[in-house]
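[09:14] KT: can someone run the structure on this one? pasting the chain below
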Amino acid sequence: MMAQFADGVSRRSLAFLAVLLAALVVAPWLVSDYLLTVLIVIFYLAYTGQAWNIMMGFAGQLSLGNAIYAGLGAYVAAMLFTRYGVAPWLGLLAAIPVAAACGAVIGFLAFRFGVAGVYFAILTIAFAEFARIGFDHLDFVNASAGLFLPVAQYTHNDLWRLRGSPTMFYYVMLAATIVAFLLSRLLLKSRMGYFWLAIREDEPAARAAGIDTFRYKMYAVMISAGFTSFAGVFYAFFYNNLFPEQVFNISRSIEMILGPIIGGIGTLFGPILGAFVLTGLAESVTSALSAFGIDLPGAKQVFYGICLLLIVVALPEGIWPWLARRLGVAERDR
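[09:31] RB: done, C-alpha cells below
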C-alpha cells in the first residue's frame, strides 16, 4: 500500500507528511484536555469528509444525507453492545453491510430512475429524515428517550471494547483518518477511480465510452456509506449516548461535507485541511466570545456560513489546491 501511495508523490510532499504525522502522534502529550477533544472532533470530521468525498469528489454524486450512514452504524454497533455484549469492532462487521445496503437502496432508486443532481441530494435528505423520524418512534432502540451505553471506570484503556481515555479515542480516530486517506488514494488511482472521474466530468461521454455508469455510481455510494458507518460506531462509543434527533439531523450531514468544500472537493488533503481550518477557527471564535462573556446562540453555524461564502467567492476550488500550488506540493489526484 505504501509503495502505491508513494508512486507519483514528490519527496517534498512525503517529507511534509512525515513531519505532520510526527506532530500529530505526539500531540496528546503536549495539549490540554480541551484541545485534545477538539482534535478528536477534527479527525472525526476529516474522516467523514473523506468518506463523503468518495461519493461527491470522485464520482460527482451530491449527497446531503450522509448522516443516515453514520447513524445506522452507531445504532447497530451500540445495540449489539448494550443488548448482547458484542464488542464494537465486531459490531462494525454488521454496521458496514447495513450502511452499504442502505446506500445501495438509495443509489438504486436514484440511478435506475434517472434521479440526479439536486434531486439526488433531496432524495438523500429524505432518507435521512425518514430514518430520524423512524428511530424517534422505534421502541427497540428506546425511541426519543435515547440509547445510552454503559460507562465504567477503567484504570486502563480497553481498545477492544472502546472504553478508555480521550487519548485512546484520539489515536483511534487518527489511525482511521490515515487509513481513509490511503484507501481514498488507492481508490482514486485504481481503474474504478478513473471511471469515477470520467463520470464526474461528463457522464454521457463516459457512458458512450462503454463505462457502466450505473454500476460504478453504485460502488461509490456503497463504499462511501460503508466508510461513514465506522464514524457512527466511533461516535456512539465516544459520546456514550444516541438520540435520533441528533444523530440523523441534517446538521450532521452538513458538518460532514463542509470540510471537503472548504478544503477542496475531489482532493485527498482537502477534507483534512478543511476540517482543521473550519473546526479550529470555529472553536477559536466560540472561546473568544466566551472570554468576553458573550452568549450568542448559533454563533458557530453563522461562522460556518461565512467561511463557506468566503471560500466559494475567493477560492472556489478550496483552500488546499491554492495552498498546494504555493508550497510546491500540488496533488496529482485529479
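[09:33] KT: thanks! The chain has a mean pLDDT of 89.
[09:34] RB: yep, looked fine to me
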